[in-house]
Design brief:
The chain is α/β, with parallel strands linked by helices. It is 20% helix and 39% strand. The strands form two sheets. It has a four-stranded mixed sheet with strand order 1-4-3-2, covered by helices on one side. A four-stranded mixed sheet has the order 5-8-7-6, with helices on one face. A hairpin with an 8-residue loop joins strand 6 (85-92) and strand 7 (101-106). It is globular, with a radius of gyration of 14 Å. It starts with a strand and ends in a 5-residue tail after the last strand. The model has no long low-confidence stretch (mean pLDDT 94).
Length: 122
């Protein structure tokens, strides 16, 4: 659906470090960078762009696709290690769907970062 998503962050260096560490288990890495801005992607087709802003960023809910439950769990560990705050540990979310397995972490600007796997089992 999306080609790219761009949003502002209040502390570029802190957000850059957080997202690089938290999303590394999904294979997401730097595609390009310029002063105060970074583009991240796992496939070079769809990207997430972070830009330094002087405005207070509005809170977002970003959900990333995982290929396995292990990736969801690795994201959660990496995001907490990167300074994120737990907002829902890895586990099934049957109220969403029978195969919904996700974890949620609050990032540096209060954004709710989710990683979800829609496959059953490991």
């Amino acid at each position: 659906m999306f080609d790219h998503v761009v949003f502002g962050v209040s502390d570029y260096e802190a957000s850059k470090a957080f997202f690089l560490k938290a999303l590394a288990p999904l294979g997401i890495a730097i595609v390009s960078e310029r002063p105060g801005g970074i583009e991240l992607s796992s496939d070079g087709k769809v990207s997430l762009c972070l830009l330094q802003t002087e405005e207070k960023p509005a809170h977002l809910h970003l959900a990333f696709v995982a290929e396995s439950r292990e990736q969801v769990e690795a994201f959660h560990r990496a995001a907490l290690h990167a300074g994120g705050k737990d907002n829902g540990p890895p586990g099934p979310r049957p109220n969403y769907s029978g195969k919904y397995y996700a974890a949620f972490v609050i990032g540096p600007d209060g954004h709710n970062i989710e990683v979800v796997c829609h496959e059953s089992g490991g």
